[in-house]
Amino acid sequence: MGSRSKIDLAYIAGFLDGDGSLMLQLKKRKDGKAKIRFMLTICFYQDTRHEKPLYWIRNILGIGYISRRNDGMTELRINGYKQVRNIIKDLLPYIRFKKYQAKALFEASDILCRGNINKLNKNELKTLVNLILVIQKENYVTKKKKTKEELYKILDLTP
């Protein structure tokens, strides 16, 4: 990981509050025993003409990949249960506007870091569904959001 001063972390948290997003998604997968997976993402966005801060953030955090989109935007994405948990833990004291989402993402990463998705019990899966809904509610999303019932069905939690 990169060198992280409190000032750097506060700056990165402010950048995330303004030009970032926190995501907890349930994705279908074709490979492996589990037919679904949870995906945790921290994403920072910037107009490609002004993308240098994204490289600085990646350097300070020591992780992530940068990609240029076709719409003139560049994004820095960080995925992975442990990586997201560690970064959110460091940024949480400085996050202001996305505090609920950050706390929900941290709680989800904590559950998912404990082990295999196939070993999660029904209460843990229900908690993860509720955390998805907390984050979803706070995010601006152009695609249709999944309902609690749809998420329960995907996870085979329906009675």
Automatic annotation (TrEMBL):
<dbReference type="InterPro" id="IPR027434">
    <property type="entry name" value="Homing_endonucl"/>
</dbReference>
<dbReference type="InterPro" id="IPR004860">
    <property type="entry name" value="LAGLIDADG_dom"/>
</dbReference>
<dbReference type="GO" id="GO:0004519">
    <property type="term" value="F:endonuclease activity"/>
</dbReference>
<feature type="domain" description="Homing endonuclease LAGLIDADG">
    <location>
        <begin position="12"/>
        <end position="98"/>
    </location>
</feature>
<protein>
    <recommendedName>
        <fullName>Homing endonuclease LAGLIDADG domain-containing protein</fullName>
    </recommendedName>
</protein>
<dbReference type="InterPro" id="IPR051289">
    <property type="entry name" value="LAGLIDADG_Endonuclease"/>
</dbReference>
<dbReference type="Pfam" id="PF00961">
    <property type="entry name" value="LAGLIDADG_1"/>
</dbReference>
